[in-house]
Design a protein that fits this description.
This protein has a single domain, classed as Nucleoside phosphorylase domain (Rossmann fold), CATH 3.40.50.1580. The protein is 26% helix and 27% strand. The protein has helices at residues 3-17, 90-93, 95-102, 162-175, 195-204, 214-222, 247-251; strands at 24-28, 40-46, 64-70, 73-79, 107-116, 126-134, 179-186, 208-210, 226-236. The radius of gyration is 17 Å and the shape is globular. It starts with a helix and ends with a helix.
Amino acid sequence: MDYKRKVLEALTYIKKRVTTQPQAALVLGSGLGGLADSIQHPVIIPYKEIPGWPISTAPGHAGRLVCGFLGNVYVAVMQGRVHFYEGYSMQDIVFPVRVLGEWGIPYFIASNASGGINLGYVPGDLVMLYDHINFMGVNPLVGPVFSEKEERFPDMSYVYDRDLLDIGEAVAREEGITVRRGVYIAFSGPSYETPAEVRMCRTLGADAVGMSTVPETIVAHAMGMKVFALSCIANYAAGITAQKLSEEEVIR
């Protein structure tokens, strides 16, 4: 079965279970899946039930699609994602994004846990991404053009929608939450970055480092979705402190 047919088969299955059109898609990163518990009138579909949908194996990723109301907005929430380091291809990693894009969802919101490169960041800080550096060595758009919705050569000047950034900052001020704007750099993983690599990242202008999000946002942007991404600084990146990095710390 070709790739596009697999995407459409997955979407057909989901639409049989979910009859309301979502207005936004959310991806919940490591340790952040608890937000799905706030969804009202949820329709919960384990990834393993959706034809062709890749299965999450990383700690802290429940592997469920949860659709329902978050406030008064109907959303489709990915409670966990898959990563390049799990052995999946780039086409597998962005398969869910293409399904959500084909569904006609206008907004794509990604979250992740990351390491703080910027020396002004501390664990617990929230960073709204305004740009990224793809250091994974591959681009998810490589290959045949997926569909007429996906641009072949998308301009990357404003991947992260500036209006959504402004709204995010305004809401944070209203709620008394401190947020920052930053640049996220994505490595393939699964080994954490070396202290020398972290110094390189800082020289390149990155503020936070992780192993996800960038492939998803590239494809969402290419499909015409308005993109917003929020990164939780889970730990200091390697070399900033003497402490060793661990998955347990990231999730905590």
